[in-house]
Amino acid sequence: MATYMDVHRGMVGITAEQLREAHEADLAVEKDEGVHFEKAWADPESGTVYCLSHGPSKEAVERVHARTGHAADEIHEVPLTV
Amino acid sequence: MATYMDVHRGMVGITAEQLREAHEADLAVEKDEGVHFEKAWADPESGTVYCLSHGPSKEAVERVHARTGHAADEIHEVPLTV
Lengths: 82, 82
Prior knowledge:
2 copies of one chain form a homodimer. Chain A has 2 helices and 5 strands. In chain A, β2 (36-43) and β3 form a beta hairpin. Chain A has a single domain, classed as 2-Layer Sandwich (Alpha-Beta Plaits), CATH 3.30.70. Chain A has 82 residues and is of the alpha+beta class. Chain A has a 4-stranded antiparallel sheet. The A-B interface holds A 3, 5, 14-16, 19-20, 23, 39-46, 48, 50, 52, 76-82 and B 3, 5, 14-16, 19-20, 23, 39-46, 48, 50, 52, 76-82. Chains A, B: It comes from Streptomyces exfoliatus. Chains A, B: This is SCO4226 family nickel-binding protein. Chains A, B: It holds the Pfam family SCO4226-like.
């Protein structure tokens, strides 16, 4: 299992409810891919959302987001944490 | 107090030790600005580092990183978390 940070852009004006709904949609299907979305942070002003996840591969994380209708613009494995 | 996510680019090849040293340098001076750097994640391959912090303003967070020699390329207040 590896750790990933992905970034979504263009989400200007995202609300707390929309963020929660998107996160819950990911949680509902993530098990199919062996992924877990741990946390997400959103900046409604610039429209940027960061998601932290654990999973078997970058592609698995991408598939969860794609299935729930919000493909990430960028995704990075982050093997180093402090 | 608000929550911020900042991004550093161009850190290709960053090691666990370099990430820890950079984080410890921030921790050593952050109190002067009322900031706390909670966590950081690094992708040595693309050279991307994400830092999560809490502080009174974006500028205060920027000042800590600038003083410790690693100004962020991007910083966003992230008022929404899930």
